[in-house]
Amino acid sequence: MESKRSGLCTRVFRSLRFVGARMAPVVVVLLLCALTVQPVLAATWGPYNASSIRSIYANSTAGDGSGGASYGRIGAFTTTAVYSRVLVGFPTTGMPGPALITGGTFTAWHGTYSNYSSTVTITVSIFPITRSWTSAATWLTYDGTNNWTTPGGQKGSALNGTQTFEGNPTAQVQKTWTWTATGVDYRYGIEMQTGSEGAIQSRKCVAYGAEGNPPTLTLTFNALSAPGSAAVGAVTTSSIVWNWGDIANEDGFRVYDASSGGTNKSGNLAAGTVSWTETGLSPNTSYTRYPCGYSFNYEGPRTALPTTVTLSVPPSTSTVTCDKPTGPSQSPHFTFTAVGGFGAGKVQYYRYVWDQSPTHTWTDSEPQWSSGTLPCTATSDGDWYLHVKGYNSADVANGTLDLGPYSYEAGPVIDKIGLLWSMADGTNVRLEGKPVTAAMSDAFYVEETDRSAGIKVVSNAHVVVKGDLVNVAGTLGVSGSERALFATSVTPVGTASVPKPLAMGCDKAGGMSPSAATPGTTDGRGLYNVGLLARVCGSVSYSNTDDPQDMYFYVDDGSGVWDGSGHAGVMVRCGSVTPPASGFAAATGVVSLETPVTKTVAVLIIRDSDDIKTF
Prior knowledge:
By secondary structure, this protein is an all-beta fold. It folds into 5 domains: 2-221, no CATH class; 240-309, Sandwich (Immunoglobulin-like), CATH 2.60.40; 320-405, Immunoglobulin-like; 417-495, CATH 2.40.50.200; 502-614, CATH 2.40.50.140.
């Protein structure tokens, strides 16, 4: 990495007091910089509280040292064979990381002190201390209790250069060591040591506090610049390849999820790395990442990479489903569901086409489906297909799906309702352009405009009202006691006048069966008229209001109609409309069939209160 380092920035750290010193000077921080210092550094440097200086020496009991003095002894203490070294601590908060530092300058002052040799010159070397220590440090321990690995202090290799301390000066003399070295850790300070340890004549004073200027430490380091932004690489539903430009001086890169603070998503990447694949992401989700160079605990400025959205979940038969299976269907209506819905973590929207082709060539201008369900209608017999293409919130497509075939087989169009009477149950048929004469919650009735025939249509999924003109597709069957068409499709196509009711005697209501497939009344008389809108008149022979939702009465015209209930005439079902209790009445409604006891009889079903007239 040394080949990538260029440009020097200089910071000065200054230790300020002994433990127990008589004063606590203010920290002074000097800045000399050949390159612009990034704000992240400038915001975290100085001023600092005072650090410490500590003499440690051999052959003494626990508690030895000069932590309470305002100077340090180097070489010897008070007697021969008692070695002494000086530990100098510096502020560490905000200090740049070890590998960022390229060198430094250490300055100490040879102080004057009585009884120190005025003739002997010693050579002093300095070393980086390699572990933390306290003001209670001694020759044997780094905190008054726990031992150094090596007595006298744990230290690294000597930093370049030595200085001589000559005699006992009358005024303090500045001594300076300057070196170049990368990968050195200065967080724990500097140890000063002489090769003349143990000789009382070699004892010298290192100034601090009351004795003069304290030691200073100046570190040089290479600044980190911001990486260049670059376009992202491959993007999937769960991964993004982030790219950026290389820089100088870094030991590696880190990629964060915020412009400041945040989480280091990449861990420590190697120097020179300009691409990183992030995995484990969510589909159709927006991400922004911020790479920066680092050197141990120092990080350079971050760069915002292009905000990128992961691909949406591709459409499949498990993410897009239909309410009907593929294959034949008697209903032209198909409803499709986007399983799980739309949005982040899924798909933003689909483009779709509903047609009769098994494949589709996409233009990316097809209609969008982005919420709810998708209803599709087969407008003719044959095979139908739904084609979908998924997109994320950045309008990037991912995957297509062709669903089908859904085979719509509605059956032939029957021109007249009366032609249905001879057809077998289970036959698929269609009626077109028939007016609705009555509508209930679970069924409605249609009739020919010439009043030749009508039929009950069973359907609770289609909302129609009296007067609608409808197309109906479905299957023939029996509902209760009467012939009916079980609708698979009901399509309103307009409005029409409701045919007028046929007036008939009570004994003619229902009529005879027109074929073996279509039942009539047990005592059928006259033409089959079940399903037609009709009107009967007579006296009210019975009225029942026990069930407020299913009230009814009987109309008797004297034609001798009995249904086995003990009441004469034809039952008129009124629903929630209050029936007349007595007198004469005319009732209009659709003719239905019921078997209340043993006989199949005609029943009239009114539509609303206007269908009952009393006299």
